## 1
Amino acid sequence: MVAYNHTTWQRVFGNPSDSVLLAPATGPAFSLVSRPGGAIGLVENQVFTAAVNIARAALDRAYAILNLVIVGTPPGVGLVPADFDRHFEYCFRVGAAPVASWQTVRDNLVRIRNGLWSPALQIVDKNPNRAGAAVGYVRCAWSEAVRFADEAREVSFAGRIHVRFGSYNAANTAANQNGAASTIAHEATHKFTGARDWAYIGGGSIGWRAMPPGTPLPFGNLTNAQALNNADSYSELAMAMP
């Protein structure tokens, strides 16, 4: 990826971003968009094509498993992992009443999956002058901020998914593919459900599930209501499914 070194004038008024339309083998085409003055490299093409497919497949699997759970399939039967209940508890803090959360999560998974399977999907290189050290973001349009003002949500349906390409473009490795997929799933949850960042819990479910039963959940101040509207909860549900 060419260094992001063009001037402020160029950023505001200069050359349009390069855009490569990718057609993954397992889904519809999507656009990978560089920052102005940049270009899409071969490794970025490879990594992000794989990452979008990984995110799509993970969310599809989570959706299928949750549908089976809703109709009464017990853990350990068919596609439903034996450790599903503990994983779902980690992600959504449901306590002794998981049924009340199943439909909410399923409805949001539908929105996220529809967005990631849309040929209008755009993955854009993150502007380093926005969002600080964050690996990704989705900007909320001014009109959304006014029309949907709600301190419990980060409505950003108009913004595109931005990912810092430089975090994943050093080499076409499984680690970079999966890292990019997790970021895409997280940002897609922002974009397509309006979820916010109540807590960053990604990457923790596997370790917690390995602990003895009764081990307190990390981020114990995260409530069920917050978790149901938390971007990392959906990314973790899909990407760390047992």
## 2
Amino acid sequence: MLKLRLVNRSARSVLCTATLTLAVILFSHAHAEVVRPVDCYNASLRFAALLDVLRAEMGKPVMGRSPLQVQNAAPREVYFQTETTFIKINRLSFELTREEFPEPPTPPTEITPADVLVVIEASQVVLEGILSYFAIDQPAIDPPGIEDRTPTDVFNQFATINRQINQMLDQPFLPSDVYQRVTLCLNYTTALRANFPGPRIPETPPYEPRKKPADVYAELRQCFVLVREIATRSGLSTLSVNDPDEQLDATIAPGDVYDFSSLLLAELRYLQGKSDASAQPLESFYPGRKFPSHVHQRARLLLTQLTELKGLVDAEPDWLTTGEP
């Protein structure tokens, strides 16, 4: 376990960055063959325990489990869920200490549990830095002794961790953040559409007022169903999302929608990686203040794009150059 005990902010910054860099190098190269999903799960329990120490010190309430619960997750999907954890704990670090740290680079090859563990450990470095900054005691956390877990278990654990971090932020993830993420999904879908002839971008649907985060979440669920059908038709596999819990629907916040949009983005990146299209996705930029209705409009445009793409893939299922690894 990476440890961080610092005397002042300057020393903390230097040691955090050095430790993070060392973690990326060591785990990427030395442990690629030995890390198992259960190792990632045990690391998630240690992270959650330390996060709860900080939560209690901040006087924040405990959040329930995330509405995003999945089945049949692969390490690449877990990776992007833990990447969201790093983004959120890094934002919390900046809010509380004015320190933020470089994100571990996405592996260029097939993602393994070792790559997932790199991001978990990097996130823990940031979390321990926050605790050290405020001189909060960090209790010793004994290994839980769990011997068997799947990538799905790790994914679902971090889905709930991400929900907790969002509640601890002074500036939680807002509709504007989700809008930017959905726009990036649109850009990836546009790049995928370039594999086929014809116009790439449909007309924007009309604006519908007074939408809520739960409405956007429901729209993105429909988008995910289409992405999963496109992948299946193309000879690829993706995880499946559990049916929504009606009791949780009323509690869905923009942070939950952001997490779901991140999952959707991960699957679109996966499809793009299998494609030989020359078109590359454009970056998305902060759009300014947006409301849930703006994001809902954006999500409906994405749904239209994906519907058209599915029809094209149905007619030409061998459109990808490579199959399942």
## 3
Amino acid sequence: MNMPFTFCRRRRGLSMTELMVSLAIFALLLTGSLSVFIMGLKIWHGSSMDIESMNEASMGLEQMLYGSTTNDHGLRQASTNNTLVTTNSAGWSICFCGSNSFGYSASARVITNQSGQVLCTNVSRSSMTVISNNQACVYIQVTQSHGSSIRSNDLTTTIFFRN
């Protein structure tokens, strides 16, 4: 007896098992891709915070050494005879070349020049140490924080005063 042709034909489409397996594989791939993306964002955010804090510390130290404007003198112009460094628990200050000065305020977390212009912000620690008559050491630590991420960079330089 011959069966009709329509009964021998296999039905086309996906079974429920095939559909569930493909959805599970897709979910695993999506979860893996999403976790790699989130990890990449965290690394990028941390790196950009590092760069920001390093730029802030570098620019602040550079303006202290060379002057913040063309009319200002930087610490490279300071001489041994007329330089006065004072330090206390609230910060430090250095006066040189008559009316030029720089100061660090621990409470405000900034380094400013004699006219009050802010040269460096987010300064968590800074020190000005006189090594000898003609040299001093400047240390700056700038800290950036965003949410639970905290990044900091330290810069130190030694200044030799002119005779």
